[in-house]
């Protein structure tokens, strides 16, 4: 192709190299949420919730904003960013993202405190149902069923290795109150290093579980799925931001890839449905004493 000046070659090659690395990084890291519940437990929980919901007479619509206290706990290994020592500004930006994403739900997040704890073992090893998790939460957890505790950690090894986050469900509060809360990867906050999962939507998603929502792909194409009637059935998680995916072709609607409770990239997520909003408001009324 003839003559190319040295400088010009570099300019052509550099963007290509970055693109390659970008693709490799995406392929290595896929969203994995560690919030898990047995199918058999779901049936029992949903039957119980149905009864309690009737008793509580929760209504579909709402007029009042509900404020929820949020306690943020930074767990770090050392005072560098890679060591988990995230700046206050990222935490502030994260709360702003939450208040935007939850705008239509009528919930508002009130950041009451940040604690910072240097503990390499917790930073590396905390994961669902682990000993480090129990130690961490029994020391740091603040507030009652109506308050949200968020912990940022590194998920480097052990049962939590590779997770972006996980949460407890509202119905487990009465039996496991100390464990209540959300744990997220420190680099998933807005401005973090975890592209394409660095716009704060990991916490939006995990809080969805904390408010009683399942994944949109829960149950696949079978049965009641996520127990919300206006989220189309979905066979498996969506990644990236696919165009008109339809993984349950016999059911109405395309996959809800823009839903906060799917696995899409942060930029692709943008909504809770009316059905999800109605469900989460009933859930927190019944299990967290949060009502108008
Ligand atoms: C801080 O911790 C991170 C994460 O383990 C590690 O990669 C880094 O080398 C540590 N830095 C210092 C200065 O100790
Ligand atoms: C707020 O955080 C500080 C540490 O940053 C801690 O000493 C204090 O107990 C916390 N207060 C509440 C109300 O949780
Ligand atoms: Zn999840």
Automatic annotation (TrEMBL):
Residues 197-283 form the Peptidase M43 pregnancy-associated plasma-A domain. Keywords: Disulfide bond, Hydrolase, Metal-binding, Metalloprotease, Protease, Signal, Zinc. The keyword Disulfide bond applies. Pfam families: Peptidase_M43. Residues 1-27 form the signal peptide. This is Metalloprotease. Belongs to the peptidase M43B family. Gene3D superfamilies: Collagenase (Catalytic Domain). CDD domains: ZnMc_pappalysin_like. GO terms for biological process: proteolysis.
């Amino acid at each position: 192709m003839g003559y190319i000046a040295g400088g010009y070659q570099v300019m052509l090659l550099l963007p290509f190299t970055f693109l390659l690395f970008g693709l490799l990084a995406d392929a290595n890291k896929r969203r994995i949420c560690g919030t898990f519940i047995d199918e058999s437990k779901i049936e029992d929980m949903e039957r119980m919730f149905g009864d309690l919901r009737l008793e509580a007479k929760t209504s579909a619509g709402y007029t009042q904003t509900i404020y929820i206290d949020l306690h943020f706990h930074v767990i770090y290994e050392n005072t560098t960013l890679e060591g988990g020592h995230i700046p206050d500004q990222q935490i502030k930006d994260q709360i702003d993202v939450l208040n935007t994403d939850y705008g239509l739900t009528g919930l508002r997040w009130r950041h009451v405190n940040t604690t910072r704890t240097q503990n390499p073992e917790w930073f590396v090893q905390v994961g669902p149902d682990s000993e480090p998790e129990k130690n961490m939460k029994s020391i740091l957890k603040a507030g009652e069923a109506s308050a949200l505790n968020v912990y940022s950690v590194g998920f480097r090894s052990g049962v939590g290795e590779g997770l972006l986050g996980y949460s407890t469900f509202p119905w487990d509060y009465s039996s496991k109150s100390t464990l209540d809360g959300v744990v997220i990867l420190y680099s998933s906050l807005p401005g973090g290093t975890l592209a394409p999962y660095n716009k704060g939507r990991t916490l939006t998603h995990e809080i969805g579980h904390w408010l009683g929502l399942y994944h949109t792909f829960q149950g696949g194409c079978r049965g009641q799925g996520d127990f919300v009637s206006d989220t189309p059935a979905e066979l498996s998680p969506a990644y990236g931001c696919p165009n008109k995916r339809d993984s349950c072709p016999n059911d109405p609607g395309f996959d809800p890839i823009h839903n906060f409770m799917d696995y899409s990239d942060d930029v692709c997520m943008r909504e809770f449905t009316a059905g999800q909003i109605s469900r989460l408001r009933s859930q927190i009324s019944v299990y967290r004493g949060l009502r108008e």
